[in-house]
Amino acid sequence: MKFTDHLQLMQSLPQSDLPTDEPLILASGSPRRAQLLKAAGYEFLVQPASDEAECGLCSRETAPELVARYAYRKAADVALKIQGKNKTGLVIGADTVASVYGQILGKPTDQQHAESMLRRLSGRRHDVYTGVCVWSVATNRCVVEVVRTELKMKPLTDSMLANYLESMMWEGKAGAFGFQDGNDWLEIVDSGSESNVVGLPMERLAEIFADFDTLAKAINPFGENPPLSK
C-alpha cells in the first residue's frame, strides 16, 4: 500500500500561495513531511537541520513547549546557514511528539523502547503535537505555532504488538507508531488533523501562509525561545 493510498486527505490537501517570493525550504529529512508538501502541490527544496537543533528536554517543559522550541531551532539552523550565504528562503521547521498523561514520547531508540511506548499507549487516548515554524529569511520574521490532535488506540494484543514491532515501521516515528502505516487500531478523535499526526498540519500551514503578514513576528535569530503566535 502506498502512503498516498492510505491517507484519503492526501488527495485534497489545502494549498495556499506563498507569502513571499522566496524559495520554499523544508528543514527536515522526514520523507513523510516531504510527501505531504508534495501531495499538496508545493514546490520546495529539502535542507535538513543539524542534529544539534534538537538539544533535549528542558526542565518542566511540556510537549507543546518542546515541539515549538524544536521547530523554531530547526528553522533557525537552516535559515542562518542560508542567510550566511547571502541567500533567501521561506523555511519550514517542524517537530512532532506524542504525549500520554503528560509524558512526552519522542522517537524510540530501539525495539525495546518502541514496545514500552506502545504498551503505554495501548487502550488509551493520547495527544500528538506538532510544532511548526515558518521563517522568512528575507524579512527575518517568523510564525511559530503548535497543533494538537487527539488519538485513541485500541488495546493491543501481544500478537498485534509483536507483528508491528517485527515490521520495523515504528522506526523514526514519535510514539513508535505511524498513523499512515494502515493500522486499524488508531482513531482520530473529533475530526482532528490527520496530516498533523503524520508530521505536518497541512490545514494550518496553508492558513499560516495566507495570514503570514499578520501573524509573523520579528525575531532574534540567535534567541532560544520561539515567538509563539497567540
From TrEMBL:
Compartments in which it is found: Cytoplasm
An example Gene Ontology biological process: nucleotide metabolic process
Coiled-coil segments on the chain, per record: none
One GO location term (cellular component): cytoplasm
Principal localisation: cytoplasm
Catalytic residues identified in the record: 95 (proton acceptor)
Entry-linked SUPFAM superfamilies: ITPase-like (SSF52972)
InterPro entries xrefs: ITPase-like_fam, Maf-like
Keyword Hydrolase included in the entry's annotation: yes
GO molecular function: dTTP diphosphatase activity; UTP diphosphatase activity
Catalyses which reaction(s): dTTP + H2O = dTMP + diphosphate + H(+); UTP + H2O = UMP + diphosphate + H(+)
Keyword check for Cytoplasm: yes
One Pfam match: Maf
Alphabetical UniProt keywords: Cytoplasm, Hydrolase, Nucleotide metabolism
Domain of life of the source: Bacteria
Documented EC number(s): 3.6.1.9
Cofactor(s) of this protein: a divalent metal cation
Function noted in UniProt: Nucleoside triphosphate pyrophosphatase that hydrolyzes dTTP and UTP. May have a dual role in cell division arrest and in preventing the incorporation of modified nucleotides into cellular nucleic acids.
Homology family: Belongs to the Maf family. YhdE subfamily.
HAMAP family noted in UniProt: Maf (MF_00528)
NCBIfam families for this protein: maf
Protein name: dTTP/UTP pyrophosphatase
Organism: Novipirellula herctigrandis
High-level lineage: Bacteria, Pseudomonadati, Planctomycetota, Planctomycetia, Pirellulales
GN (gene name): yhdE
